[in-house]
């Protein structure tokens, strides 16, 4: 395309050519399309197929599972909806990563650029709004069930809040014991020094740690605590306990539902040493929901557990 001069309606003139030393010859290969104004490198067949498969897995498949797939004859949601919600979060993460220029942050790659409060807040809120919104959609819109089937019951609120505090009192020591047990078990195969080093490495690789340890983290303590002790527990409990555990329990019973949902909860956190503590937390929270029929105790216990984790970084607690 020819470059137009200042007089748009006048006779167009060509842009001046770059100096001879700045020019380069472009290869004329079957994968290169050249034109007067641009050069486009066509993707290889393998890249095109991978792109199509990725789009199908993260967009088309979730839409089918959540919208077009017939509802289960059992009248209760199942693994299809759970997988659909989980897969639909992948393009959300990618969109946020690109929009917020998160590539390069500790949460996504090498620890070269510490995570800051703005992208952390946006991602945390978006993720948990998606957890709640998609879970409510599945229960109310797809299956025409009451939101109480998702555990969103607020009757006997004071009693459930108290139960949550009691559960939290069990969660914190259980997490500590299960972490030591995980180190011991991994040590049997990898060596105890390696296992302890891996546990310390996972603590240090937490993308929130630099933010929490910075002066900005201390000044933003109320916001950070609100996100980790309120927003995250609400979103994760609605999805992992309300939707995932609730659906698995309705189909295969309490034992399989609690164990499977806890294993899924641990798997998505992508930890090795801390997979066991996270599994134990998920199991205990599922049982709290089962016992009360409300997600409030699990939300409270989850929030207190997160507060203790944040305080341990701020105060330098070691257990």
Characterization of this structure:
The chain has helices at residues 45-68, 79-99, 117-142, 157-190, 192-204, 209-213, 215-219, 221-268, 275-292, 296-315, and strands spanning 32-34, 39-41. By secondary structure, the protein is an all-alpha fold. Strands 1-2 form a two-stranded antiparallel sheet. The radius of gyration is 25 Å and the shape is globular. 29% of the residues are buried.
Count every beta strand, where a strand is a DSSP E run of 2 or more residues. 2
The helicity comes to 55-70%
Total of DSSP H or I helical runs spanning 4+ residues: 10
Termini separation comes to: 67 Å
State mean pLDDT (0 to 100 scale). 82
Going by helix content, strand content and strand pairing, the class is mainly alpha
- Taken in chain order, the helices and strands follow as EEHHHHHHHHHH
| Uncertain regions spanning at least 5 consecutive residues | 1-15, 30-40, 104-111
- How much of the polypeptide forms β-strand, as a percent range? under 5%
Oligomer: single chain
Rg is 25 Å
| Main sheet overview | 2 strands, antiparallel
Lateral arrangement of strands in the main beta sheet: 1-2
Principal-axes shape call: globular
